C-alpha cells in the first residue's frame, strides 16, 4: 500500500507544480496584455501619434493616386501605340493589296503576252506545215511531170527550165561559163549559172588515176600526164571509157563523151556527157546521181557551157599548151577510135578547107585567061603558103580516107564525115 500512496503524492506534486507554472504564465501574459493595452491607449491619446497616423493615411492616399495616374498614363500610351500600330497595319494592308493588284496585272499581262506568243507560234507552225504540204504537193507534181516526161516524152517540164545562180547580181564567172568548172568552186566571188536541166551532164572527179594526182612537170618541161597517157594511163582510161559509156548509153544516144585529164582539182577526172536529147540526159541524171562507182559516190550536175570549142583546150593535143597541167580549160583524153569525140581539129580543118575553096582562083579553063585573084594584094609568101596548105590538105584527106574505113559506124566523127561526103 505504501508504495502506492508514495507514488500518488509524487504525481500530485507534479501536477500541482504544473498548474502552478500555468497560473504564473497566465498572470504574466495578463499583465503584459494590460501593459500593452495601457501603452496603446496612451499612444492613441498622444498628438504625435495622431499626426503620424494622418501623415501615414495621406501617404497611402498619394501612393494610390500615383499608381492610378501611372496606370492611366500607361493605358493612354498603350492606346496610342495600338492606334499607331493599327494605322500602320491598315497602310500595310493597302500596300499589300496594291502589290497584289499590281502582281495580278503583271501576271495578266504576261499571260496575255504568252498567249499571243503561243498564238503566233501556232500560226507560224501552221504556216510552215501549210508551206511544207504545198511544197510536198508541188514536189509530187513535179516528180510526176518528170516521170511523165521521161516515160512519154513531150515538152520539158517548166519547173526544170530554171537557172540556179550562186551569186546573183554579180558578174558572170568566165571560167565557169566556158568549162562548167571553177577553181574556187561555189565559193567564187563571181556568179556561177547552172541550168535546171540540159542535154549535157557533168560528173566532177569521176575518173581517178594516180598519174592525175601529180602536179609537177618533169625535167623536160612536158606534162607527166602525157607520158602516162601514152603508156599505162591510156589503157586504164580505155577500160573506164568502155565501162562507163556502155552503162550511160542505156539511157539515150550519146553525142559527145569526154574525160578531163587536168591536174587541177576542179577539173581532175571530170566526165562530160552530151546526150542527143534533154530527156536522155535527165534519165541518166536520175540514174547516176548518188550512185556508187569504184567506191566513190557520184554527184551529177547539168551543165550548159557555150560550146565545146571554147571549153576544150585546143593546144593540149599538140602538146603546145603553155599552161600545162595548170590549164583552166579542158584537157581531155583522146577517146579510143575517136568514139563520141568532139573533134576540134577536124572542125578547124573543115573551116580552113572552106576558106581555101572560096579563095581558089586557078581552075581548068578553055581559054588562056586566068580568073582574077580576089585578093590582089596578097603577097607571094601568102600564095605559096596556100599552095602548101592545099598539098598538106590533100595528104590529110588521103590518110583520113584510109582511117575512116577502119572506124566504127557508131563513131560521131565517122557519121559526120559520111554526111560531108
Ligand atoms: Zn568562178
Ligand atoms: Zn590548156
UniProtKB/TrEMBL annotation:
One of its GO terms (molecular function) is zinc ion binding. SMART domains: RRM_1, ZnF_C3H1. Residues 369-421 are annotated as: Disordered. A zinc finger (C3H1-type) spans 167-195, 307-334. Residues 82-145 form a coiled coil. The keyword Coiled coil applies. Residues 377-421 have a biased composition (Basic residues). Keywords: Coiled coil, Metal-binding, Repeat, RNA-binding, Zinc, Zinc-finger. One of its GO terms (biological process) is mRNA splicing, via spliceosome. Residues 167-195, 307-334 form the C3H1-type domain. One of its GO terms (cellular component) is U2AF complex. Residues 224-305 form the RRM domain. It comes from the Eukaryota. This is Uncharacterized protein.
Amino acid at each position: 500500500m505504501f508504495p502506492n500512496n508514495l507514488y500518488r503524492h509524487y504525481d500530485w506534486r507534479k501536477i500541482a507544480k504544473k498548474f502552478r507554472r500555468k497560473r504564473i504564465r497566465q498572470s504574466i501574459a495578463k499583465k503584459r496584455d494590460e501593459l500593452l493595452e495601457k501603452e496603446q491607449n496612451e499612444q492613441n491619446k498622444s498628438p504625435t501619434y495622431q499626426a503620424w497616423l494622418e501623415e501615414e493615411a495621406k501617404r497611402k492616399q498619394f501612393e494610390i493616386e500615383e499608381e492610378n495616374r501611372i496606370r492611366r498614363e500607361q493605358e493612354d500610351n498603350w492606346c496610342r501605340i495600338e492606334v499607331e500600330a493599327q494605322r500602320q497595319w491598315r497602310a500595310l494592308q493597302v500596300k499589300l493589296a496594291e502589290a497584289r493588284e499590281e502582281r495580278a496585272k503583271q501576271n495578266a499581262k504576261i499571260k496575255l503576252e504568252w498567249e499571243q506568243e503561243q498564238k503566233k507560234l501556232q500560226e507560224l507552225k501552221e504556216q510552215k506545215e501549210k508551206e511544207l504540204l504545198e511544197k510536198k504537193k508541188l514536189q509530187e507534181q513535179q516528180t510526176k511531170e518528170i516521170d511523165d516526161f521521161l516515160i512519154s516524152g513531150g515538152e520539158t517540164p517548166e519547173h526544170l527550165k530554171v537557172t540556179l545562180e550562186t551569186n546573183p547580181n554579180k558578174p558572170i564567172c568566165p571560167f565557169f561559163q566556158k568549162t562548167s568548172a571553177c577553181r574556187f568552186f561555189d565559193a567564187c566571188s563571181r556568179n556561177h549559172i547552172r541550168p535546171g536541166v540540159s542535154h549535157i551532164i557533168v560528173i566532177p572527179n569521176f575518173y581517178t588515176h594516180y598519174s592525175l594526182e601529180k602536179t609537177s612537170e618533169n625535167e623536160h618541161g612536158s606534162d607527166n600526164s602525157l607520158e602516162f597517157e601514152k603508156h599505162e594511163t591510156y589503157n586504164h582510161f580505155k577500160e573506164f571509157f568502155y565501162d562507163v559509156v556502155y552503162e550511160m548509153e542505156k539511157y539515150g544516144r550519146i553525142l559527145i563523151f569526154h574525160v578531163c585529164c587536168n591536174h587541177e582539182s576542179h577539173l581532175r577526172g571530170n566526165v562530160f556527157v552530151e546526150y542527143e536529147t534533154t530527156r536522155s540526159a535527165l534519165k541518166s541524171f536520175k540514174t547516176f546521181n548518188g550512185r556508187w562507182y569504184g567506191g566513190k559516190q557520184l554527184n551529177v550536175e547539168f551543165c550548159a557551157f557555150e560550146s565545146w570549142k571554147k571549153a576544150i583546150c585546143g593546144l593540149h593535143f599538140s602538146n603546145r599548151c603553155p599552161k600545162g597541167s595548170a590549164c583552166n580549160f579542158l584537157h581531155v583524153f583522146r577517146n579510143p577510135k575517136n568514139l563520141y569525140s568532139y573533134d576540134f581539129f577536124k572542125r578547124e580543118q573543115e573551116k580552113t578547107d572552106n576558106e581555101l575553096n572560096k579563095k581558089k582562083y586557078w581552075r581548068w579553063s578553055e581559054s588562056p585567061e586566068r580568073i582574077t585573084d580576089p585578093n590582089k594584094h596578097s603577097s607571094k609568101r601568102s600564095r605559096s603558103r596556100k599552095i602548101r596548105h592545099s598539098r598538106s590538105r590533100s595528104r590529110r584527106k588521103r590518110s583520113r580516107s584510109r582511117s575512116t574505113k577502119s572506124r566504127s559506124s557508131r563513131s560521131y566523127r565517122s557519121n559526120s564525115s559520111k554526111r560531108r561526103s
